[in-house]
């Protein structure tokens, strides 16, 4: 065993071996994997081995597509068979709502390049004759699904890695991790100590324990998972003989069941409601190639329904029941990336779908470690997406909820109840008393909308307009015509101080820093010129700046800030979280309302648009920004939690004469649509450049050098390939939700377009980098359904909804730049729940296009 290496990967499951292989392939041959026992000794060896490309996050789906594509290459390089069975798969819908979900997935697949097809239950039965088609209303066929040999695949990764120079050390538990002042890690094992520049936690079932070695409590929990194998079935053998192929995999949403052929029988697994965590506090180090005791009673309800839906399986003998632990994060996605606050400590764990995602995780993490960027939009997997509130008990409750809902539909207006409330503001009880429907915003309870008095404050979940539609409209109109108040504690808040603070922020941000007492809006780019942040910044005093951004990205941004802090101590950053809370008042009467609450002049002349002031509001010390996300006249008022009730009560009392209303987050998002304001992690993501994102006016190319400036200059000079646009949609009873395809009646090749979500089928070169493919190359011939006569898919929706004041269904999304200012009727359509609806680009926002109202 070497004593010094570039990186140590801890854990020899499929994910650890994939990371090792991809690091070696990227040129880091001086890497070592250390495994406590044998390869696959955790969850990998007893996995069902299924793989697919479909995922709710298009960016994760793209990495899953890479994983599936990688396997044949891996077999050739390693000489080890993965035992691939590319059978294809069918998802079955038993209700119209589940069929709507499949229509959404099918539409999303159009721009991902997935060759899916909506089929009838009878067509599904022809592929899987063991089912009773009368239980279902429809289905979706995906040809890129199948299964493989878990152990063989893991060994293939390891053999390929060793051929590229990597080292693997087995039967060598890691006992301790320490770090030297220079950042070097000491990986202390039973066989000795290895010094490494980087450490990667691929600990799987032991990921928590590895994290605790460095003071980290990762939000990961193992769950018992059961599947059964039947005895050989004559029906399966007859199907194979008559058709010359294997039976397809099947996913039954209602039964919470997945099935596939296994030899001459069937493998049937379930994600049961009565789920059970395994070893919820500590994972025993001596656990290895063992299985857990089966508990068929726990999965009996699912089996009973499954045998009804698949009567051909009901009479088959059960050969074996497999019960083994798998790890999950609270939302079911992996935990990948560098850990904020630690130097060169990386995670690649909680990858429960290891044989769908393991290759993509290895590729993204190796890119990140070697090149400084994952090369993909991996926010859905970033370990930084969870805050400190994701404690052991929170994780336990949320993982159990996620497991029990794995095959359940998540509606766009559905808020899940487990582990709530985790964080509350002083107004939480007041908001409930006001009949607020609350939502979870990065662990914080936030008012979404207010139900009319006498009605239950509850969402009726739906893919279509629901019971919140009318109340939200009333909130929006009250704000636009009078004045409203909303809680804004769910922003991220930072203070940057020190003699180097202004230079530091000028280096990070694309806009110039404001003069004292003023605000700016500014994006932040990475070295590759991609959008990684969007902030409001106030110059609050000498060597002091206040920053507001997305709460969900608080740790993501702190990681970036800390990476670029000057070494001389001239800059300090403080993250407030809920030690600083806020309220916003907005609407044409907002100025008059604030004047009643303030003891200083807040007229337009004295307190201009984009001004920052520290003043007493309702008698409480506050920081006030003359800006709101509504795009109307308004103010953001920030205070310590101890003062929030006082300020809110003062606003409510003073606002009575102006017809003040409470409004929630959904009304706020409706109003931002009619101003064409983008949102972080929907319109603005690390896959878009600032000019693609239509953030031109906030990027000052003539100011000092800033991170990403050279790449931004190249984008500006060449012209962006894509542009963010706002569209009005001729919707029926459903508005866009995000990730719908945008169709256009065009026959032009718009040149080579980099594919943020994937134009056509994802393609990767020998280094695992996604290749650039033109719309014409991919769209015209190789992707079934992406072209329909003169119509072709040219873009995708990032977000949208109903803009209540202007009474328009609206969407934002990305289209080729050559189409971005074409406002012609009949040019665009957006596919909503399986129906293509006419859409038209709006160059100017439909509400207050000149911005006169918000300037006062």
UniProtKB/TrEMBL annotation:
Record has Oxidoreductase as a keyword: yes
SUPFAM superfamilies: Aminomethyltransferase beta-barrel domain (SSF101790), FAD-linked reductases, C-terminal domain (SSF54373), FAD/NAD(P)-binding domain (SSF51905), Folate-binding domain (SSF103025)
Residues covered by the Aminomethyltransferase C-terminal domain: 788-848
Coiled-coil intervals: none
Chain ranges of the FAD dependent oxidoreductase central domain: 371-424
Keyword annotations: Oxidoreductase
Domain GCVT N-terminal, first and last residues per copy: 427-703
InterPro entries in alphabetical order: FAD-dep_OxRdtase (IPR006076), FAD/NAD-bd_sf (IPR036188), FAO_M (IPR032503), GcvT/YgfZ/DmdA (IPR028896), GcvT/YgfZ_C (IPR029043), GcvT_C (IPR013977), GCVT_N (IPR006222), TrmE/GcvT-like (IPR027266)
Ranges of residues in domain FAD dependent oxidoreductase: 7-367
Similarity section: Belongs to the GcvT family.
Listed PANTHER family: AMINOMETHYLTRANSFERASE, AMINOMETHYLTRANSFERASE, MITOCHONDRIAL
Protein's name according to its UniProt entry: FAD-dependent oxidoreductase
Species per Swiss-Prot/TrEMBL record: Aquamicrobium soli
């Amino acid at each position: 065993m070497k004593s010094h290496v570039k990186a140590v990967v801890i854990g020899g499951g499929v994910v650890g071996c994939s990371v090792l292989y991809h690091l070696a392939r990227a040129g880091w041959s001086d890497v070592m994997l250390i495994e406590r026992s044998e390869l696959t000794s955790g969850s990998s060896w007893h996995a069902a081995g299924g793989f697919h490309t479909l995922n709710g996050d298009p960016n994760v789906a793209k990495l899953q597509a890479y994983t599936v594509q990688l396997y044949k290459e891996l077999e050739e390089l390693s000489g080890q068979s993965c035992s691939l069975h590319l059978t294809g798969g069918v998802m079955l819908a038993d209700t119209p709502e589940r069929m709507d979900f499949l229509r959404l997935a099918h539409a999303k697949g159009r721009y991902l390049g997935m060759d899916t097809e909506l089929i009838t239950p009878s067509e599904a039965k022809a592929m899987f004759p063991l089912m009773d088609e009368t239980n279902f209303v429809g289905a979706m066929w995906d040809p890129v699904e199948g299964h493989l040999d878990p152990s063989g695949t893991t060994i293939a990764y390891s053999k390929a890695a060793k051929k590229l120079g990597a080292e693997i050390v087995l039967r060598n538990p890691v006992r301790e991790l320490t770090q030297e002042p220079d950042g070097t890690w000491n990986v202390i094992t039973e066989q000795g100590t290895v010094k490494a520049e980087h450490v990667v936690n691929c600990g799987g079932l032991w990921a928590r324990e590895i994290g605790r070695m460095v003071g980290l409590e990762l939000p990961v929990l193992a769950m018992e998972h059961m599947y059964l194998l039947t005895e050989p079935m004559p029906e399966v053998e007859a199907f194979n003989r008559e058709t010359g192929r294997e039976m397809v995999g099947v996913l039954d949403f209602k039964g919470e069941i997945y099935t596939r052929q296994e030899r001459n029988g069937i493998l049937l697994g379930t994600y049961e409601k009565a789920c059970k965590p395994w070893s919820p506090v500590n994972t025993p180090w001596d656990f290895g190639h063992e299985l857990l005791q089966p508990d068929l009673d726990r999965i009996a309800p699912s089996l009973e329904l499954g045998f009804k839906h698949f009567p051909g399986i009901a009479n088959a003998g059960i050969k074996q029941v497999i019960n083994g632990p798998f790890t999950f994060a609270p939302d079911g996605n992996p935990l990948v990336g560098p850990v904020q606050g630690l130097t060169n400590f990386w995670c690649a764990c909680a990858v429960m779908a290891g044989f769908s995602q393991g290759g993509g995780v290895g590729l993204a993490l190796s890119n990140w470690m070697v090149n400084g960027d994952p090369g993909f939009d991996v926010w859905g997997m970033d370990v930084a997406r969870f805050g400190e509130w994701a404690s052991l008990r929170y994780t336990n409750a949320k993982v159990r909820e996620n497991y029990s809902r794995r095959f359940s539909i998540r509606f766009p207006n559905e808020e899940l109840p487990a582990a709530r409330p985790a964080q509350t503001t002083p107004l939480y009880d007041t908001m409930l008393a006001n009949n607020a429907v609350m939502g979870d915003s990065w662990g914080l309870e936030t008012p979404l909308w207010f139900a009319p008095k006498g009605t239950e404050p509850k969402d009726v979940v739906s893919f279509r307009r629901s019971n919140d539609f009318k109340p939200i409209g009333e909130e929006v109109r009250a704000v636009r015509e009078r004045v409203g108040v909303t809680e804004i504690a769910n922003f991220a808040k930072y203070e940057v101080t020190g003699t180097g603070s202004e230079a530091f922020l000028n280096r990070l941000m694309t806009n110039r820093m404001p003069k004292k007492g003023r605000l700016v809006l500014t994006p932040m780019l990475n070295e590759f010129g991609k959008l990684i942040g969007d902030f409001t910044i106030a110059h609050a005093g000498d060597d002091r700046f206040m920053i507001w951004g997305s709460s969900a990205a608080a740790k993501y941004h702190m990681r970036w800030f800390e990476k670029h802090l000057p070494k001389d101590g001239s800059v300090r950053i403080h993250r407030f979280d809920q030690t600083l809370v806020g309220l916003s008042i907005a609407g044409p009467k907002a100025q008059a309302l604030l004047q009643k609450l303030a003891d200083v002049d807040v007229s337009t002349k004295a307190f201009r648009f984009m001004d920052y002031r520290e003043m007493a509001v309702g008698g409480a010390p506050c920081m006030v920004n003359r800006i709101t996300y509504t795009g109307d006249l308004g103010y953001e008022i920030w205070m310590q939690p101890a003062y929030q009730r006082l300020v809110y009560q003062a606003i409510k009392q003073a606002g009575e004469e102006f017809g003040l209303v409470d409004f929630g987050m959904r009304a706020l998002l409706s109003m931002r649509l009619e101003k064409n304001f983008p949102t972080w992690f929907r319109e603005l993501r690390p896959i878009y450049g600032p000019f693609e994102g239509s953030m031109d006016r906030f990027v000052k190319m003539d100011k000092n050098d800033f991170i990403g400036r050279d790449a931004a200059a190249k984008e500006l000079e060449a012209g962006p390939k894509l542009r963010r646009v706002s569209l009005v949609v001729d919707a029926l009873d459903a508005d866009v939700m995000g990730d719908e395809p945008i169709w256009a009646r065009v026959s032009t090749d718009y040149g080579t377009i980099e594919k943020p979500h994937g134009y056509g089928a994802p393609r990767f070169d020998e280094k695992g980098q996604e290749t650039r493919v033109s719309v014409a190359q991919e769209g015209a011939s190789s992707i079934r359904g992406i072209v329909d006569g003169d119509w072709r898919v040219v873009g995708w929706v990032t977000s949208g909804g109903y803009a209540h004041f202007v009474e328009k269904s609206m969407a934002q999304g990305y289209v080729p730049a050559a189409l971005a200012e074409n406002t012609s009727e009949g040019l665009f359509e957006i596919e909503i729940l399986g129906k293509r609806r006419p859409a038209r680009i709006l160059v100017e926002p439909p509400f207050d296009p000149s911005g006169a109202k918000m300037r006062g």
